[in-house]
Amino acid sequence: MVEYGSTTTFAGKKEKRNPPTVIFGIPLGEISYLDYQPNSKLKVPQSDLLVFFRQMAVMMKSGVPLAQALELLAENMTNKQFGSNIYDISKKLGGGEELSSCLGYYPRIFTPIMIGLIEAGEAGGILSQVLERLASLIEAKSKIKGQITGALIYPVLILVLAISVSLGLLIFIVPKFETMFSDMGADLPAITSFMLALSRIVTSWAFALIAPLSLFIGFYLFKISYATPTGRRFFDNLTLKTPLFGDLILKSELASMSDTLSTLINSGISIVEAIERCINASSNEIIRIALRRSISLITQGQELSKSLETSKVMPRLLISMIRIGEETGALSFMVENLANFYKREVDESVSVLTKAMEPAVIFVIAAIVGTIVVSLYLPMFSLIQNMGT
User: How many Å is the Cα radius of gyration of the chain?
Assistant: First the structure.
């Protein structure tokens, strides 16, 4: 059984203090977790959760009672608001509640997967191992999320840079050439006329009003549409089919799903409940639909591998590996290997994509600038030829 202990060890220190003065959002003076009230709506960065679970696992292995371990964590957390919540959990724990039920008071910090794993750890007497596994799971998910974010930000930056360069040339450079061409009475090629017309549109007041308004309306409509089941399914399916990035996003989802599933199975959670937890953890509606369908088929008596075959999104490799795991009685081992495989695939895909984007930046900017420059200098070449004849 888990030794929870009590909260009396540091009772002399737990006196509420006057909060520090805050000027322009910057607190003056020493800040303590005692300066804050527990906040059930608080959201905590994954890095803080990683530290929380890692240190708690270490202290439990060292024989520190859980309530005292939580108090120590509350004192030493850099995020003092989170520290206030941890101290509140330690008080509830000292009052006789179990850790899993104490964490349930803060659903925006501790997800159902975390609470479910801790419940299983408490029941099986392996809480320290579960806490360590949770820390590894959070670390792996944070790494994958960071890789995907980095890979997706790169093309967005290219797009922003390309639009900025284009607008800069069309607003500040092209109008000067239009005045010069008008004074010279030159015959303008089609590409030059198009570029001048585009410059007039971009420098007009109508464009300055309509462009931001259109972006706002487009974003608003996307947000409303994505909030509906049909819209979410459409956009998530479109994301998976996007060239280059779709395959990367699918691999990251499969890596996260496999990692979560192996952790839950190793902790003694049933396969149906484990898949339900994976549904809550997934951020893609197409993956969620496939997992929901698999739960329905499993409850009807089918195996996991057979239930996943009905989905078009699940790769054959994943289904085959799960089938082998079921036949050999080593399902958790196979799913863990799948998680490691897809993590390596994500690493390689991000590396290849980043390297491919580097020349793409040069090509895109060069194409935009080159097109505008050529369109502006073509009439001048024509005038020089006419002067020569």
Answer: 29
